[in-house]
Amino acid sequence: MDTLDTIIEVVSTSAPVIRGGLAGRRRKADEENPSGETQMAADVWADEYLEAELTAIDGVGEFASEEREGVIDCGDGLSVAIDPLDGSSNIKSNNSMGTIIGVYDAPLPASGRNLVMAAYVLFGPITTMMVAREGTVTEYVIEDGDRRPVKEDLTLPAEPVVYGFGGRVPDWFDEFADYAREIENELKLRYGGSMIGDMNQVMTYGGVFAYPGLQSRPEGKLRLQFEGNPIGYIVESAGGRSSDGEQSLLDIEPDELHQRVPVHLGNEELIDRLESTL
Ligand SMILES: O=P(O)(O)OC[C@H]1O[C@](O)(COP(=O)(O)O)[C@@H](O)[C@@H]1O
Ligand SMILES: [Mg+2]
Ligand SMILES: [Mg+2]
């Protein structure tokens, strides 16, 4: 098994463990993460669990997480960046959440062009996993300790159906609000407050997800290394596009591990239109 196969295996065997540990960890952890957000007990626990599992893999040289300040050096090899629980504020209301992983062949922080694999686990009514590697995307169901492919060579449906945009509407820039008005006339709203849950709807039905730059925070909310790049890599591998408003997320040269970025993802035509509106 090569290192990427081992990472995929470890993430998928960790998924039922993480899912099983969520119920007792719905409280706040009295700590902030490096982005200044209050952590949930589940964030801290999933981070520690995945850190132990992933740094133990031969061929993983660096590990970094949305939930910890610096990069851990764990030998020679690939660099792994994770968002252990994406959408963890949803744990209180029992809505969907996910785990995101990006594997880079360069030291962190790295460009999305250095990604060699990206994947996410979605904790919905069932546990699914989406893996992008070598230009193709596979969706799996994780059940009874087994990971079974349910869709190979997944591509975004040509006719988009859904959209979901984050941030408070009065905080949007006018150009984004104009774009949103157009999209609202064409597609159905699906916004659940977890990028992975919302993006999985776009991967399934076609459409557009965005957490745009805001007037109060032009850099947006989501983090390039842990969220923007991996999901950008997945959507681009499925024939869609990612953008910070001007260019592919994967073309951004990172300055900092926890840097934020405006995120727009989805069908090519919808992201082209967004870029010409912004
Ligand atoms: O609560 P808001 O502002 O809609 O933000 C939701 C966004 O923030 C996130 O929850 C941020 O990710 P984390 O939960 O990993 O911090 C995204 O999953 C989601 O798209
Ligand atoms: Mg997240
Ligand atoms: Mg998170």
TrEMBL record:
<dbReference type="GO" id="GO:0005737">
    <property type="term" value="C:cytoplasm"/>
</dbReference>
<comment type="subunit">
    <text>Homotetramer.</text>
</comment>
<feature type="domain" description="Fructose-1-6-bisphosphatase class I N-terminal">
    <location>
        <begin position="19"/>
        <end position="142"/>
    </location>
</feature>
<dbReference type="GO" id="GO:0042132">
    <property type="term" value="F:fructose 1,6-bisphosphate 1-phosphatase activity"/>
</dbReference>
<keyword id="KW-0119">Carbohydrate metabolism</keyword>
<protein>
    <recommendedName>
        <fullName>Fructose-1,6-bisphosphatase class 1</fullName>
        <ecNumber>3.1.3.11</ecNumber>
    </recommendedName>
</protein>
<keyword id="KW-0479">Metal-binding</keyword>
<keyword id="KW-0460">Magnesium</keyword>
<dbReference type="InterPro" id="IPR028343">
    <property type="entry name" value="FBPtase"/>
</dbReference>
<feature type="binding site">
    <location>
        <position position="83"/>
    </location>
    <ligand>
        <name>Mg(2+) 1</name>
    </ligand>
</feature>
<keyword id="KW-0963">Cytoplasm</keyword>
<feature type="binding site">
    <location>
        <position position="86"/>
    </location>
    <ligand>
        <name>Mg(2+) 2</name>
    </ligand>
</feature>
<dbReference type="GO" id="GO:0005986">
    <property type="term" value="P:sucrose biosynthetic process"/>
</dbReference>
<dbReference type="InterPro" id="IPR033391">
    <property type="entry name" value="FBPase_N"/>
</dbReference>
<feature type="binding site">
    <location>
        <position position="83"/>
    </location>
    <ligand>
        <name>Mg(2+) 2</name>
    </ligand>
</feature>
<dbReference type="GO" id="GO:0030388">
    <property type="term" value="P:fructose 1,6-bisphosphate metabolic process"/>
</dbReference>
<feature type="binding site">
    <location>
        <position position="85"/>
    </location>
    <ligand>
        <name>Mg(2+) 1</name>
    </ligand>
</feature>
<dbReference type="GO" id="GO:0006000">
    <property type="term" value="P:fructose metabolic process"/>
</dbReference>
<comment type="pathway">
    <text>Carbohydrate biosynthesis.</text>
</comment>
<feature type="binding site">
    <location>
        <position position="221"/>
    </location>
    <ligand>
        <name>substrate</name>
    </ligand>
</feature>
<dbReference type="GO" id="GO:0006002">
    <property type="term" value="P:fructose 6-phosphate metabolic process"/>
</dbReference>
<feature type="binding site">
    <location>
        <position position="66"/>
    </location>
    <ligand>
        <name>Mg(2+) 1</name>
    </ligand>
</feature>
<dbReference type="InterPro" id="IPR044015">
    <property type="entry name" value="FBPase_C_dom"/>
</dbReference>
<dbReference type="GO" id="GO:0006094">
    <property type="term" value="P:gluconeogenesis"/>
</dbReference>
<keyword id="KW-0378">Hydrolase</keyword>
<dbReference type="Pfam" id="PF18913">
    <property type="entry name" value="FBPase_C"/>
</dbReference>
<feature type="domain" description="Fructose-1-6-bisphosphatase class 1 C-terminal">
    <location>
        <begin position="157"/>
        <end position="276"/>
    </location>
</feature>
<dbReference type="Pfam" id="PF00316">
    <property type="entry name" value="FBPase"/>
</dbReference>
<feature type="binding site">
    <location>
        <position position="191"/>
    </location>
    <ligand>
        <name>substrate</name>
    </ligand>
</feature>
<dbReference type="InterPro" id="IPR000146">
    <property type="entry name" value="FBPase_class-1"/>
</dbReference>
<feature type="binding site">
    <location>
        <begin position="86"/>
        <end position="89"/>
    </location>
    <ligand>
        <name>substrate</name>
    </ligand>
</feature>
<comment type="similarity">
    <text>Belongs to the FBPase class 1 family.</text>
</comment>
<feature type="binding site">
    <location>
        <position position="227"/>
    </location>
    <ligand>
        <name>Mg(2+) 2</name>
    </ligand>
</feature>
<dbReference type="GO" id="GO:0000287">
    <property type="term" value="F:magnesium ion binding"/>
</dbReference>
